[in-house]
Amino acid sequence: MNDDTPQIDGAVPEVVPAELVFDIPPPDVPGFLRRQRTAAAHLAVFRGQRDSRGRPVLPTPQDYDDLVTFLLGFVAEPQNRDEARELLLDMDRDQYNKLLTAVLAENDSFLR
């Protein structure tokens, strides 16, 4: 790996654009349950929710905006929030899944 590889919580996984650095707090940092609840809610929206008739419910543009805003709270670099938001919007589905999984785990078991 090279120095351009993004970092999450001090580790160096290849899961996000190289310009993004994430700081995911460990479970003993206050707000653990709040972070877990919010991450789980975002995952539920994107993992095949169904309406009362069993039809798939697709995420809305607001759902995507809310997810990016939530993840923005974990971006350490770049410090410019508009730039960080744009980079988050450029991530692919696998990158989002890995990042949300890391937030839910709040440990380094998902990081290299």
Q: Can you describe what's shown?
A:
By secondary structure, the chain is mainly alpha-helical. It is 44% helix and 4% strand. The chain contains 4 helices and 2 strands. The protein has helices at 32-46, 61-72, 81-89, 93-105; strands spanning 21-22, 75-77. It has a two-stranded antiparallel sheet. Helix 1 packs antiparallel against helix 4 (93-105). It is globular and about 45 Å long. Residues 1-15 and 107-112 have low confidence and may be disordered.
**What is the global morphology?**
globular
- SSE sequence, one letter per element: EHHEHH
Question: Major sheet, described briefly?
Answer: 2 strands, antiparallel
Secondary structure: helix percent: 40-55%
Structural class: mainly alpha
Question: What's the helix and strand layout?
Answer:
Layout (H helix, E strand, L loop, with lengths): L20 E2 L9 H15 L14 H12 L2 E3 L3 H9 L3 H13 L7
Antiparallel strand pairs: 1-2
Features:
112 residues; mainly alpha; 44% helix; 4% strand; two-stranded antiparallel ribbon
Question: Briefly, what is this?
Answer:
44% of the residues lie in helices and 4% in strands. It is mainly α. The N terminus and C terminus are likely disordered.
